[in-house]
Amino acid sequence: MEIKEFTTHIQPVEGPMLHHVMPVPQNIVDEFGHFKNHLRIFCRFGKAKEFPCALSKRDSLFVIAISKKLMKEAGVNADEIIHVYIRVDEDNGLALPEELKEVLLQDDLGSKLYDELSDGYKRGYIYYISQAKSIDMRIQRALKIINKLKTGR
Fold first, then answer.
1. What is the pTM of this model?
2. Amino acid 145: pLDDT
3. Can you tell me the mean pLDDT for 120-149?
């Protein structure tokens, strides 16, 4: 897991969902080898803790999308020059929280249905479970997701 580092700036983006991006220099993108339009990575800059994200193609550039909340946590502003550290997410954003792992081990049908989901849905569920602060809430969320899959909702 080699860490790549570079300097870039935060630029605002017009649109309802995406507010800011950090362009990634092409020489850094090239170091990751061939990939299509996006690559799951971990990123760190400013005072922010390392976070999962994607290196994505936007027009002719590759960028990392960041939220206003993350900018605030990192202590950075739009148009500011920042030093960024990134590394490939070897699990493609699919590392299971312990609570979900345990639920899947105990439920064959739930595990089968979970395995059939697209990576995007899996990442969404992993994020939802991981954001719960208590173990009990993470377990409740894992059970709720698997029950929804089994009932087709």
1. 0.74
2. 94
3. 93
pLDDT band at 1, cuts 50/70/90?
A: low
The token duo for 130 is: 């991981």
Question: HEC states along the chain?
Answer: CCCEEEEEECEECCCCCCCEEEEECHHHHHHCCCCCCEEEEEEEECCCCCEEEEEEEECCEEEEEECHHHHHHHCCCCCCEEEEEEEECCCCCCCCCHHHHHHHHHCHHHHHHHHCCCHHHHHHHHHHHHCCCCHHHHHHHHHHHHHHHHHCC
Confidence bin at 108 (pLDDT 50/70/90) = very high
Give the pair of three-digit tokens for residue 152: 């087709």
Distance in angstroms (rounded) separating the CA atoms of residues 48 and 43: 9
